[in-house]
């Protein structure tokens, strides 16, 4: 069954079915939530860039599938507003870069840097993440 089209006159009529709620593809990334997952990534590979620190680890085959990612910013980044803005920008960079440049079976933790993560132009932020992934996966780990 195809989703119903929007009404031609732009008005809702009683009995009309609403259009599909979402036409986006499902999110390929899973967000890390457990502290233990963050700690495991902290003990593995690290790559710093001018706008963020990226920690990564290859999971064991019996662990979760897909690409998992976590985000964190310390109080050095600033107040809650600044930390949340930095994390939002890291989430968008991860959403754009990790499905293409990340590897299945890996966990990534993106750590914001004080004053830089929130202020860096988005294309450079994404380029920094791509650079960090090349360095991490090029290391043969």
From TrEMBL:
Gene Ontology biological process: tRNA 5'-leader removal
Keyword check for RNA-binding: yes
UniProt keyword Glycoprotein, yes or no: no
EC nos: 3.1.26.5
Catalytic reactions of this protein: Endonucleolytic cleavage of RNA, removing 5'-extranucleotides from tRNA precursor
Subunit structure: Consists of a catalytic RNA component (M1 or rnpB) and a protein subunit.
UniProt xrefs under PANTHER family: RIBONUCLEASE P PROTEIN COMPONENT
Family of the protein in this entry: Belongs to the RnpA family.
Name of the protein in question: Ribonuclease P protein component
Lineage, broadest ranks: Bacteria, Pseudomonadati, Pseudomonadota, Alphaproteobacteria, Rhodobacterales
